[in-house]
């Protein structure tokens, strides 16, 4: 969970300028027509510092989401797959990855949703005149606490398929790299190579899940941009083609980069704590290492 907190919180905070522009291109497409034009307009009107508007809710929200998502994914993978040598349940590995990631993300989004609503309100509010606490007070005063969760359904629609593709694609890409690219097992490679494989597989999985979750991402931005917007009114405002294409190039760049970095940070944290990098079904030896690492941490 600590590794997930660091990997998601730091990476999402780091790509705040890209996320800021993406949200504005989705919510105000007539004003922000392209990546270059959008950045120029934001900097000219608000200064370079405005590119990090929404940094606080982004860091807090995705730190909470990352801790729950990565931590529970490992838990559910062991629960659904069972502990063994990884071969006995090989036929069912994909199903285990899908079920584990979906279960983890379902819970993680409940932690993320209020911060995502605040982030989008801060980033798309006219003239950026509203801050983190101002956005929270505004939403609660006008819509109640439920206003922070009105985007939960499209958030699930975005994040659950996103995470399922993200984890399955990562696991399968890692397997493919070691089997066909390196022609050696993970254990035979030095730690630096293993972490490089994690980053590459993470980047590839990021591109894949960006494509899958793009329509729901547009809906999340539209719903949280306006006070009275609902899922049905947001869908009615845009065409199906726009849901798939609006802000897509920027999102692929953003999601591919941050997903690769997430897996790199997450696995580096695991290696530092004596655990193997991600990309396999849990084994008895891995469970023993985890138990030892936790025991040492508690003792310290």
Task: Provide an overview of this structure.
By secondary structure, the protein is mainly alpha-helical. The protein has helices spanning 2-14, 16-27, 35-46, 55-81, 93-124, 132-143, 152-181, 191-225, 231-237, 240-245, 248-272, 284-299. The protein is globular. Helix 8 (191-225) crosses helix 11. The protein has a single domain, classed as Mitochondrial carrier fold, CATH 1.50.40.10. It contains twelve helices and no strands. The model is unreliable at 84-88 (pLDDT under 50). The longest helix is centred in the C-terminal third of the chain and has 35 residues, at 191-225. It is found in: Mitochondrion inner membrane. One of its GO terms (biological process) is phosphate ion transmembrane transport.
Q: How many structural domains are formed by the residues?
A: 1
Poorly predicted ranges: 84-88
What percent strand? Answer: under 5%
Structural class based on helices, strands and sheet pairing? mainly alpha
The count of strands amounts to 0
CATH architecture type? Alpha/alpha barrel
- Along the chain, the helix and strand elements come as HHHHHHHHHHHH
From the alpha carbons, calculate the radius of gyration and give it in angstroms.
20 Å
* CATH level-4 homologous superfamily: Mitochondrial carrier domain
Overall 3D form: globular
What is the fold named in CATH at topology level? Answer: Mitochondrial carrier fold
Compute the average pLDDT: 83
CATH class: Mainly Alpha
Number of helical segments with 4 or more residues: 12
Euclidean distance between termini CA atoms: 18 Å
Major sheet size, sense and barrel closure = none
Q: Which percent range fits the helix content?
A: over 70%
């Amino acid at each position: 969970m600590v590794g997930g907190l660091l990997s998601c919180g730091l990476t999402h905070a780091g790509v705040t300028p890209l996320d800021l522009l993406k949200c504005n291109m989705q919510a105000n497409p007539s004003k922000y027509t392209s990546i270059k034009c959008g950045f120029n307009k934001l900097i000219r009107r608000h200064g370079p510092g405005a590119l990090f508007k929404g940094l606080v809710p982004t860091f807090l929200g995705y730190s909470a989401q990352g801790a729950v998502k990565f931590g529970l994914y490992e838990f559910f993978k062991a629960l659904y797959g069972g502990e063994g040598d990884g071969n006995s349940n090989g036929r069912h590995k994909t199903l285990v990855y899908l079920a584990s990631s979906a279960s983890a993300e379902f819970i993680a989004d409940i932690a993320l949703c209020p911060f995502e609503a605040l982030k989008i309100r801060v980033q798309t509010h006219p003239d950026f005149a509203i801050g983190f606490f101002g956005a929270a007070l505004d939403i609660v005063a006008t819509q109640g606490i439920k206003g922070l969760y009105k985007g939960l359904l499209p958030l699930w629609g975005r994040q659950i398929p996103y995470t399922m593709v993200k984890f399955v694609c990562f696991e399968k890409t890692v397997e493919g790299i070691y089997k066909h690219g390196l022609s050696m097992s993970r254990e035979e490679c030095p730690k630096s190579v293993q972490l490089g494989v994690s980053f590459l597989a993470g980047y590839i999985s990021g591109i894949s899940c960006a494509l899958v979750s793009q329509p729901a991402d547009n809906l999340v931005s539209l719903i949280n941009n306006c006070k009275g917007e609902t899922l049905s009114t947001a869908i009615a405002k845009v065409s199906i083609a726009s849901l798939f294409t609006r802000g897509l190039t920027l999102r692929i760049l953003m999601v591919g980069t941050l997903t690769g970095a997430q897996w790199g940070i997450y696995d580096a944290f695991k290696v530092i704590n004596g655990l193997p990098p991600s990309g396999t079904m849990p084994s008895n030896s891995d469970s023993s290492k985890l138990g030892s690492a936790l025991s040492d941490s508690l003792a310290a």
